[in-house]
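Technical annex, item 7. During the second reporting period the consortium partners agreed on a shared format for inverse folding records so that results from different sites could be compared directly. Each record opens with the tokenized structure and is followed by the designed sequence. A conforming record, contributed by the partner at site C, is shown below for reference.
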């Protein structure tokens, strides 16, 4: 995977033994938690070039933002801990998840936080958000003239 976070990054914030207990040493579960964290964040970051900021399975992320990585790991960690929580605090993981969403990604989305060095999406060449599964369509009715 070429996402900005990897299973190695996750092991920095959780003990490897705890991750193995939760996942039964299944790396697919870890990859799913990471992909879910990336998709969650992408929904808030549609003003930015998602492949450059977060990466995709095919494209490496070009941003090295430690705080972004930390928040993404909190979201991925929550997705793991909600499966089972041996030696982990579900309440703490849930609080970190909410902080990442409400205090970081929503602030970026509202423009109250402007991350330094993140490339903005080019609206001329990429008019739709670069997130799989999102389709936008706008239509309008013909103008009507009423005469009395």
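Designed sequence (site C submission):
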């Amino acid at each position: 995977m070429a996402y900005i976070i990897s299973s190695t990054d996750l092991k920095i914030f959780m003990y490897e033994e705890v991750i193995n207990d939760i996942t039964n040493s299944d790396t697919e579960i870890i990859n799913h938690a990471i992909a879910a964290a990336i998709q969650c964040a992408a929904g808030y970051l549609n003003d930015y070039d998602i492949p450059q900021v977060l990466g995709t399975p095919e494209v490496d992320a070009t941003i090295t933002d430690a705080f972004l990585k930390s928040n993404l790991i909190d979201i991925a960690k929550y997705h793991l801990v909600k499966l089972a929580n041996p030696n982990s605090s579900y309440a703490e993981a849930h609080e970190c998840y909410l902080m990442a969403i409400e205090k970081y990604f929503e602030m970026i989305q509202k423009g109250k936080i402007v991350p330094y060095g993140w490339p903005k999406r080019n609206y001329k060449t990429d008019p739709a958000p670069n997130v799989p599964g999102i389709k936008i369509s706008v239509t309008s009715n013909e103008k009507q003239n009423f005469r009395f």
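Residues 7-110 form one domain. The radius of gyration is 19 Å. All partners now use this format for quarterly exchanges.
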